[in-house]
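Hey team,

Filing this mostly as a record. A colleague (T.K.) asked me to run one chain through the structure pipeline before their review meeting, and I want the input and output archived in the tracker in case anyone asks later how it was produced. No errors, nothing strange. Just documentation.

Input sequence:
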Amino acid sequence: MAAELTTPQLSEKHRTTLDKALDVIRTREYWSPHPEHPKAYGENGSLSAAEGLAAFQSLHGSRFELDQPGTDGWTGGEVSPYGPELGIEYPHADIDVLLPAMRAGMTAWREAGADTRALVCLEILSRISARTHEFAHAVMHTSGQAFMMAFQAGGPHAQDRGLEAVAYAYAEQARTPGFADWSKPQGKRDPLDLKKSFTAVPRGISLLIGCNTFPTWNGYPGLFASLATGNPVLVKPHPRAVLPLALTVQVAREVLAETGFDRNLVALAAERPGEGIAKSLAVRPEIKIIDYTGSTAFGDWLEANARQAQVYTEKAGVNTVVIDSTDNYKGMLSNLAFSLSLYSGQMCTTPQNLLIPRDGIMTDAGAKSYDEVVADLAASIAGLLGDDARANALLGALVNPDVKARLEAAAGLGEVALPSREVTNPDFPEAVVRTPVMVKLDGTKPDADAAYMSECFGPVSFAVAVDSTEGGLDLLRRTVREKGAMTVGAYTTSQVTEAAIEEVCLEESAQLSLNLTGGVYVNQTAAFSDFHGTGGNPAANAALCDGAFVANRFRVVEVRRQA
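Output structure:
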């Protein structure tokens, strides 16, 4: 197929964006080329709100055609957490046919070079951005996120993370020149002269194992890091959240074909109910890179068994907030209430354990006992979610029955400080919507089997009484070291305590947020500036994004020639 988009055309369209992305990963300042507000879309080829909804609805009850090699049937079965069945069927692949087809385009993609690969990736992201309203509904009805969160996190924020990965991938590849003249003086004899070339060589097929809760936000970094470094990408979505990544694959295949490359460099591996193909795919010799977000058990299995591949995992952690003191008690309560409520706590960054000294804390509103802090936080959450319309907009829906079961079981673990209540969504009466539960627990004598020493994914938090802030820091250290943490939060007015908390997080490699009382929350991270995870504790073996996340997806192969 003749190329419809040339590299000069792509450069004219996207080079400025790439250069800015390369700049901000160095400065860490705020920047995003993707608008967050829904009203920003609808012109210049992007879908309006009505067009996006119509595009999403047109997919219901249809076959999602991708024209992939090796299609041996159709599979589907997604049911929205809000109730409706999507009824979409996806191609099921004969992997023995699909994988060789994916490898066939690798040589041309490698020889295109880092510049062209980056620009093609930016064109893919640009076309995804134009369909943000369509993607928002796809994310909402597979993850259970409320619409605005699905729009922002599943749209522009995910696209930012994809672009960030492209920038890091480009920077690491550009670090080594393509050619060098080498001359070693030999005194009176002629110098030793060589001409050297250096080529970034991809490892091989990259497997993306998608997650249910954030299919695009968690999926795009690995997808675009691998593609930008020359690797084909096989996308294996979570069976409950296929559509957002299927749409992504569809766009990528279109762009690859239009730019003169093999569309099979990106392909979809949808599975039949109960098939569980992630395990068999992960150990195939053709798979050289794996990106995974999900449970600790399967992440550990991948790290132990997929020995032929570079494995990047984001697993589970026990996120902790240390509450020592505050000079903005009302702001602290408000900030924590929002953090605990957003998307029903179904974020890998949501706080779970709140470590509070048994004798209480000092605040700008006077001394507050442990019981008062817990009661006031419970009241803040209840107030935030007291209006059902606001509650639905913040909570979304529980993504699957397992979350509901954990929520219900949590009430039996200790004294309930804040009971969960059922919320009705008038637009989607079948949606399972629940407010958070908060349970009081004793952390004086930490036990390996204590409820707070394991992740309880969902709208569950534990107000853990500790003997002192120092005791809380000991528990924080043990929790991060043994269980991992994607985020740590802390509130203190003491510089000494702040330094002690920071030292724990530096030693245990955990991202720390201090004294957040405004519109930034511990469970949010911004692309180009914030690192998501560290790769230094059990919650994840990689960070989104840094040089280490991309550099081992390719190797540099040198060819030396006599001058």
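Quick notes for T.K.: The chain has a mean pLDDT of 96. DSSP finds 19 helices and 21 strands in the chain.
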